[in-house]
Design goal:
Blueprint lengths: L1 H12 L4 H46 L4 H11 L7 E2 L3 E5 L20 E10 L16 E9 L3
């Protein structure tokens, strides 16, 4: 009995291999944190790419307000080739200065001021998924949208 107790004391005092055990516990946690940070950063970067592409489409719409296919082409051209993004067809909404909706073709009249025609466009793409454990923490889609007031047709 005493020899068994002495063996346990010697084993408890032995410090060899402690670093390996600590590393085995800490490295998976650190790797998961690093992968999660990398995934978050990549998705923020991809969201910024989408927003820059929408901005290019909005700028094109200012020069060519009735060319919806051209707006879509400008957005697609501003995206990386492997983005896998979906560009929606631009939509128009017309309203008065007080927010009252009016007809677009022909542009309706307002009781005060003049009406305005607003073009909206949206781009979406799936997020990058590096860590399957983060399924509830990442967005289901990355989305960027923009709107611009264009001259009436």
């Amino acid at each position: 009995m005493w020899s068994l107790l002495g063996s346990w004391r010697r084993l408890g005092a032995d410090q060899r291999g402690v670093s390996a055990i600590e590393a085995a516990i800490a490295l998976p946690v650190l790797a998961l944190a690093l992968a999660g940070t990398l995934e978050f950063g990549l998705n923020v970067y991809n969201r910024q790419q989408l927003q820059a592409a929408v901005q290019a489409g909005v700028q094109y719409a200012l020069r060519n307000p009735n060319d919806t296919a051209g707006v879509q082409s400008a957005i697609t051209a501003a995206l990386p080739a492997d983005a896998g993004a979906t560009v929606t067809t631009p939509t128009y909404a017309c309203e008065c200065n007080d927010g009252t909706a009016i007809a677009c073709n022909p542009l309706g009249s307002c009781t005060q001021g003049s009406g305005r025609r607003i073009m909206s466009v949206t781009v979406t793409r799936p997020p990058i998924q590096l860590v399957s454990m983060l399924i509830g923490l990442r967005p289901s889609t990355l989305r960027a949208s923009g709107a611009v007031t264009v001259p009436p047709s």
